[in-house]
Amino acid sequence: MRYSKALCLALCVVMAAMLAPAAPASAARLCEENSAKCKAGKFYKTGEALEAKLVGGKFAVFRAGKFNESGVFELAFEVACNESVINAKTTNEGGGTGTPVLSEVTGATFGWMGGANCPATGGLNNCTVTSLGRPYQGSIEFTAGTNGLWSIVEKGGGGQPRVELSCLGKTVVCFYGKNILEVSIVGGMTWLPTVNQKLEKGAGSAGACPAVAFYLAEYEGVKPGKMWIADE
Questions:
Q1: Angle CA 57–62–66, to nearest 5
Q2: Alpha-carbon distance 177 to 161, whole Å?
Q3: d(CA 78, CA 64)
Q4: What are 7-55's pLDDT values in tens digits?
Q5: What's the whole-model pTM score?
Q6: What is the distance between the alpha carbons of residues 219 and 42, in angstroms, rounded to a whole number?
Q7: Gyration radius (Cα) of the chain, Å
Q8: Which of 137, 204, 149 is nearest to 26 (CA)?
Q9: Quick one: residue 51, left, alpha or beta (phi over 0 = left, psi -120 to 50 = alpha)?
Q10: How far apart are CA 204 and CA 174, in angstroms?
Q11: Which residues partner with 150 through β-bridges?
């Protein structure tokens, strides 16, 4: 059987891509000033507290449902919290060749007007939202401009980042999580982390729990007050 030169070339390109080494992690610094390259003494050190809260007037929303045969998402219920805080602490300074800024994510809380119950649709009235498996391991990499990506994963056998949605007095309990939870960060005088992630239903969920839930939230940095993600 004869093969065309074009087909052979295509196969060579595919094989080369398969054998190529994985791209290294992107280096990053958490910079105190607006700069693509952080100057000595102008980046946050190991042990820096990171705290972000919801942007005023915004909500941390969990939209649970399923995709039908046409690929259209069908909403079953939605839980919206008007209070949410993420807490972490850096465990290195980043910089160097392919060294991201590592952190330990110790807190991720959700509530409504000082209470635990967040309003819910779909006949659930209200639900509590609890993050499970903390602390998590966080890794902040430079992406472009003065922005970055905060990837949050399991740490120390606690399991993947996940939440428990407990509704109707715990008669309906759903668990949703993701192996790598990605938070995009826009650097600035107030740094802005944003979550837009699809979570998968986990073990122990009630039969009434839909297959997936989208976690949507817009946060603003509290500690430090200003932060830019620099490429080293």
A1: 140
A2: 6
A3: 6
A4: 333 433 334 433 334 344 578 999 999 988 899 899 999 999 999 999 9
A5: 0.87
A6: 24
A7: 21
A8: 149
A9: beta
A10: 7
A11: 140, 183
Contact yes or no for 108/134 (Cβ under 8 A): yes
pLDDT tens-digit map of 133-159: 999 999 999 999 999 999 999 998 889
Least Cα distance to 199 among 88, 74, 62, 58 occurs for 62
Residue 17 three-state SS: helix
**194, 183 Cβ separation under 8 angstroms:** yes
User: In which residue are the tokens 């715990």 written?
Assistant: 170
Q: From CA 32, how far away is CA 93, in angstroms rounded?
A: 13
Alpha carbons 131 and 133: distance in angstroms, whole number: 7
Residue 88 CA to residue 221 CA, distance in Å, equals 12
CB 87 within 8 Å of CB 106: yes
How many Å apart are CA 132 and CA 166, to the nearest integer? 12
**Side-chain half-sphere of 178: how many Cα atoms within 13 Å?**
15
Alpha-carbon distance of 60 to 13, in angstroms, equals 44
